[in-house]
C-alpha cells in the first residue's frame, strides 16, 4: 500500500495526532538535511570560485627584510601563480601588530583580506587594557607558516660562553646585567622574562624599537646581552657578538652550532617566535580549508624552504586550522600569565 501523501488543501480527513506528529518530525528532518546539503554545496562552490581577484595579505609586524617580510615575499609568487590572482603583500606594522590586525578584523569575511601575525597577537590581550578587536573572537585561524628562534647573544667582553655561565654570573651579580629586546611585549622581551623566571635570576630589561638598535648597543657594550632576532646572526658569525643559545625547542639549521636553551641548562624552556595566517571571523570553512591547503603546500616547496632556512626561518605548518587555533590558545594562556607576573604594560 502506498504511503499517504500529505496534501495541504483540506480535502483529506484529519489523521490521528500521533501519526501527524510522526510525519511532521519526518518533514522537519528532511528539511534540515536539505539545508545541510545546500550549505555544503554553497561552501564547495565558494571555494572552487576563490579567488576571483587579488588577495591582500596584511603584515601586522616587522620591518622590511625581517622574518615576516621574508616569509610573505617568498610565498607570494608561489600563491599568485597557483591562483592565477596576485597575493598582494601590504606592510602595516605598528603598535605591536595592532594596527594591521585591526584592519583585518574589520574587513569583509570573504577571504580577500588576510593577516600574517606573530606572537604579539597572543601577547597583546594581556599587555593592553583595551584592544580595538577581540583577539579570540574576531578571527579564524588558517595555519602557522614558520618558526624563528630568538637568540641569546652577549657582548664578547662578558665572562659567559654558555647559558649555565650566564646564569651563574647573573646570580653572583643580581640586577647588574641588562638585556635588550625589540620592545615591551615583544617575543624577545617575554623570552627574557621567561628565562629570568625559570633560572631564578634578576636581569634589567632595556626595550628598543627594533632589533637592529638592540644589536648596535650590544656591540657597543651599552648592554651586556640580548634576546635578539635572527638579525644578530651575521654579528655572531663575524665575532662582534657571542651566541649562546636559541630559544626554540630544536636547534636551527642556520646556526646549528648553537644549542637550545633547554639543552643548555633550563629543561622545558621554549620561547620561539612564530608567524601564521588569520582571516576575519565568519570566513567560510571551505575558503579557510583552501587557504590552509595552498599556504602549507607553498611553504613546503624546496626553494621556499631553502630561501627561508638561510635566514634561520624554519617553515612550520599546522596540521589543520583547528590545530593552529588550539596552538594560539595555548600561546595566549602561556604569555598572558607571564605578562601578568612580570607587570609589563604597553607604553
Report on this structure.
- The chain has 347 residues and is α/β, with parallel strands linked by helices.
- It has two domains: 54-147 and 272-342, Bordetella uptake gene, domain 1 (D-Maltodextrin-Binding Protein, domain 2); 151-264, Periplasmic binding protein-like II (D-Maltodextrin-Binding Protein, domain 2, 3-Layer(aba) Sandwich).
- It is 43% helix and 16% strand.
- Strands 2-1-3-10-4-11 form a six-stranded mixed beta sheet, with helices on both faces.
- α1 (17-49) runs parallel beside α9, α2 crosses α9 and α4 packs across α11.
- 41% of the residues are buried.
Entry keywords:
D-Maltodextrin-Binding Protein, domain 2; disordered N terminus; 5-stranded mixed sheet; 2 domains; globular; 347 residues; alpha/beta
Quick structural overview:
This protein has helices at about 15-50, 65-85, 100-105, 120-125, 165-170, 185-200, 210-220, 235-240, 285-300, 300-310, 320-340, and strands at about 55-60, 85-90, 115, 140-150, 150-155, 180, 205, 225-230, 240-245, 275-280, 315. By secondary structure, the protein is α/β, with parallel strands linked by helices. Helix 6 links the parallel strand 6 (about 180) and strand 7 (about 205).
Amino acid at each position: 500500500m502506498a504511503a499517504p501523501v500529505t496534501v495541504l488543501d483540506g480535502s483529506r480527513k484529519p489523521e490521528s495526532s500521533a501519526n501527524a506528529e510522526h510525519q511532521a518530525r519526518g518533514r522537519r528532518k528532511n528539511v534540515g538535511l536539505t539545508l545541510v546539503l545546500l550549505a555544503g554545496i554553497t561552501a564547495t562552490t565558494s571555494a572552487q570560485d576563490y579567488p576571483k581577484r587579488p588577495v591582500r595579505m596584511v603584515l601586522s609586524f616587522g620591518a622590511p627584510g625581517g622574518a615576516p617580510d621574508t616569509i610573505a615575499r617568498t610565498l607570494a609568487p608561489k600563491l599568485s601563480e597557483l591562483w592565477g590572482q596576485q597575493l598582494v603583500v601590504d606592510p602595516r606594522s605598528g603598535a605591536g601588530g595592532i594596527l594591521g590586525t585591526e584592519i583585518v578584523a574589520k574587513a569583509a569575511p570573504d577571504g580577500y583580506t588576510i593577516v600574517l601575525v606573530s606572537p604579539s597577537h597572543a601577547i597583546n590581550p594581556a599587555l593592553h587594557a583595551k584592544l580595538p578587536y577581540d583577539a579570540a573572537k574576531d578571527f579564524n585561524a588558517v595555519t602557522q607558516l614558520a618558526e624563528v628562534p630568538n637568540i641569546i647573544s652577549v657582548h664578547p667582553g662578558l665572562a659567559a660562553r654558555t647559558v649555565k655561565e650566564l646564569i651563574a654570573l647573573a646570580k653572583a651579580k643580581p640586577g647588574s646585567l641588562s638585556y635588550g629586546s625589540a620592545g615591551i611585549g615583544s617575543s624577545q622581551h617575554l623570552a627574557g622574562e621567561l628565562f629570568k623566571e625559570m633560572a631564578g635570576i634578576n636581569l634589567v630589561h632595556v626595550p628598543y624599537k627594533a632589533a637592529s638598535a638592540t644589536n648596535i648597543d650590544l656591540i657597543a657594550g651599552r648592554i651586556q646581552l640580548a634576546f635578539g632576532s635572527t638579525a644578530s646572526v651575521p654579528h655572531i658569525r663575524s665575532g662582534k657578538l657571542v651566541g649562546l643559545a636559541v630559544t626554540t625547542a630544536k636547534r636551527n639549521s642556520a646556526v646549528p652550532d648553537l644549542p637550545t636553551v633547554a639543552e643548555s641548562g633550563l629543561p622545558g624552556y621554549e620561547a620561539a617566535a612564530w608567524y601564521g595566517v588569520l582571516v576575519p571571523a565568519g570566513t567560510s570553512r571551505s575558503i579557510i580549508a583552501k587557504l590552509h591547503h595552498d599556504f602549507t603546500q607553498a611553504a613546503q616547496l624546496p626553494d621556499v624552504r631553502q630561501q627561508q632556512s638561510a635566514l634561520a626561518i624554519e617553515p612550520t605548518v599546522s596540521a589543520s586550522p583547528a590545530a593552529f587555533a588550539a596552538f594560539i590558545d595555548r600561546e595566549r594562556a602561556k604569555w598572558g600569565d607571564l605578562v601578568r607576573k612580570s607587570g609589563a604594560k604597553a607604553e
